[in-house]
C-alpha cells in the first residue's frame, strides 16, 4: 500500500508529539528527584564569617608615614612583577586623581576589544 503525503505528515507529527511528551516527562521526573533530595538532605547551617578586616580607606588613612607608604608601594610592585623588593627602587610617588584611573580603564577596555 502506498501512503499518501497527508498520512506521512500525520505520522511524523504523532512521533514528534510523542517525543516531546517523553522529554518533558523525563524533565518532570528529574525535577521531582531533585526536590526529594532537597527534602531528605539535612540542612547544615553555614556559620557566619566575621569580617574583621577594616575597609581599605581606613588602612590607607593610617599609613601616614611616607617611608611606610613607599614600603607598601614597593612590596605591591614587587608582588605584581614577581621580583625581589630589593630590586625595585621607588624614587617618588604621586597620588593620581580618580579620573586618571577611570580613563586608563576605559582605554584598556577599548584596546582589548580590537
SSE arrangement:
Blueprint: H1 5-40, H2 56-62, H3 66-81, H4 98-113
Characterise the protein shown here.
The protein contains four helices and no strands. The chain is mainly alpha-helical. The chain has two domains: 1-41; 56-105, no CATH class.
Average pLDDT, rounded to a whole number, is 80
Biggest pleated sheet: none
Low-confidence stretches: none
Structural class: mainly alpha
The portion of residues assigned to helices is 55-70%
List the quaternary state of the chains.
Answer: single chain
Integer-rounded radius of gyration: 32 Å
Question: What is the CA-CA span between the terminal residues?
Answer: 63 Å
Characteristic key phrases:
single chain; 114 residues; mainly alpha; 4 helices
Give a nutshell description of this structure.
The protein contains 4 helices and no strands. It is an all-alpha fold and 114 residues long. It is elongated, with a radius of gyration of 32 Å.
Amino acid at each position: 500500500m502506498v501512503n499518501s503525503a497527508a498520512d506521512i505528515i500525520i505520522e511524523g507529527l504523532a512521533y514528534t508529539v510523542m517525543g516531546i511528551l517523553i522529554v518533558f516527562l523525563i524533565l518532570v521526573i528529574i525535577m521531582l528527584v531533585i526536590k526529594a533530595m532537597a527534602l531528605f538532605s539535612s540542612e547544615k547551617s553555614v556559620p557566619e564569617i566575621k569580617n574583621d578586616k577594616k575597609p581599605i580607606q581606613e588602612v590607607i588613612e593610617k599609613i601616614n608615614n611616607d617611608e611606610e607608604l613607599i614600603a607598601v608601594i614597593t612590596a605591591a610592585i614587587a608582588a605584581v612583577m614577581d621580583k625581589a623588593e630589593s630590586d625595585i627602587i621607588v624614587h617618588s610617588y604621586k597620588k593620581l586623581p580618580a579620573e586618571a584611573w577611570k580613563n586608563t580603564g576605559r582605554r584598556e577596555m577599548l584596546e582589548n576589544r580590537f
